[in-house]
Amino acid sequence: MAHDVQNSILRWPNMSSIHTNAGATIALQTLRNIGSSLSETQQQIGSGLRVRSAADNAAYWSISTTMKSDGKAIATVSDTLGLSAAKVDVAYTGMKAAVDVLSEFKAKIVAATEPGVDKAKVQKELDQLKLQLSSIASSASFNGQNWLTTEISDIYDTALSNVSLVSSFVRNDAGVAIKTTDVDLAFVSLFNAAGGGALQVDERGLGMIGGLRNQVRDVTASLGWQRVDFVGPAEFAAADQISFDLTLDASVNSGGQTFPVTIDRALVDTVLGTSDGKVTNVGQWRAIVQAALTNASVPVSLNVAGGDLQFTTTESVGHVGSSVALSNWTGGASIGGMLGIDNVLMTNDGGYATTSFNFSAFRVHQEALFEFSYQVNGEPRRTVGIDRAMVDATLGTTDGKVTTAADMVTLLQAATAGTGVVWSSAGSTYSLSVEPRADREMGVRSFVRFDSVIDNFGYLPDFNILDVDIAAPGADLTNYLNGIEGMLKKVVNGAAILGSVKARVDLQSDFTKTLLQTISSGVGRLVDADMNEASTRLKAIQSQEQIAIQSLSIANTNAQNILSLFRQ
After folding, report:
1. Which residues touch 62 (CB under 8 Å, ≥6 apart)?
2. Is 129 helix (H, G, I), strand (E, B) or coil?
3. Strand bridging mode 421-426 / 429-434
4. Which of 249, 217, 210 is nearest to 448 (CA)?
5. Would you state the pLDDT for residue 149?
6. pLDDT of residue 282
């Protein structure tokens, strides 16, 4: 029985003890848990963050920390993009203003070409426009950088003329990486200290391209002729005759075509309307020989030149350059000789088609290319191009300069090798000829066409705009107009380049701002606390805390009751 009572006491849940107050312990633990939850909720409300450290949520904390770091880097890129945009905006504004002033400049020169216009007064207006261009170029500066007024030692060297500006960024495994865009100031600079700005002499211009620019040639080998002496008078007997061979188009490649020609008593009387066979003057002899040529179907005409007979080819099919030669004379002994046919005074065998050019030195820059077309005899039309690499490789130079007619011949011969033409030089001139071996059938009836000379720059100004003086004696207004037009095209092109870069930077800047907002929103979703939820939870926990305090107070009442028992 005692044992049963003891077990009953042990199982009795409301047993009081002076060593352990179980109810108070439970109430205290509950109060501690509520206090922890209350502290956590208060920290979320105070910081606005649900995940403040790796202990809260290691994955979310790691992602948010990385993205916040990227966000700071991107924010810096955004600021740098703003700096890039400012540089481009200032330069672009200057270029647009320069376009307007140049257009006005051009209009003034056009007006000056009208008869009766006072050029001195127009020049005063141009001088003011020059000052405005100088002001625009020197004022277009941002943070000490001026792209319109430069000091580049060689503006045509991209290693020196390129400037970089931040235009974008990428995110890779290594983090945020900045990307840049190069702007070639050779297309933007208006005035460069060493020359080459858009409003200065453009040294890339090929000038007359060594004498080829604007040249159009369609050259045929000249008509062949042969002049013979007239010896007379003479009288043909009934059995007398003179014969000779006339050969056309003989050349190093072809024997040509030979026609046998015969003149007898019957022909003489028929042509002169006589019956005595007498020839008394060169005019009669010309008529007789011409009739003999016609009877033999020889395409040659006869003319009297200085008392002599001149045989000239009259071929009219295709290109008519030709040669004419007389040979194999027979007969005439009884009439006192060949009447001069056997006495050749002067000849012109027609030769091969050739044309000449006057050389002028020039330089082919890295970006330059010029082309021309030509055709030899019946061969297909060909077009060849020559650039800086070919010039240096052919002439063994490194500067692209062609300084003599002999250099020009070396260059052109390399460009047209094996196509039936020969280039040669003599002093300051050089010539293009049909190679004798080019066409065996054509022989000296050769021809060559040369045309379509172009370059990739077109006309470039050969003067500085600040030096324009239309009132000066001998001022070439046409050259000024062409030069200003070239300058205007260059400035417009420069403005277009800046405009495209500006659009690129603006797009990237807008994207960067949007991206920053998106990153911030994404990080917030991971680590930000829901303030409405946290506030509601705080109220609930505070209520729980009050109840837990009351529970602890009730649990501690049992201890007071035990003490009261010992007071009895």
Report:
1. 54
2. helix
3. antiparallel
4. 217
5. 92
6. 93
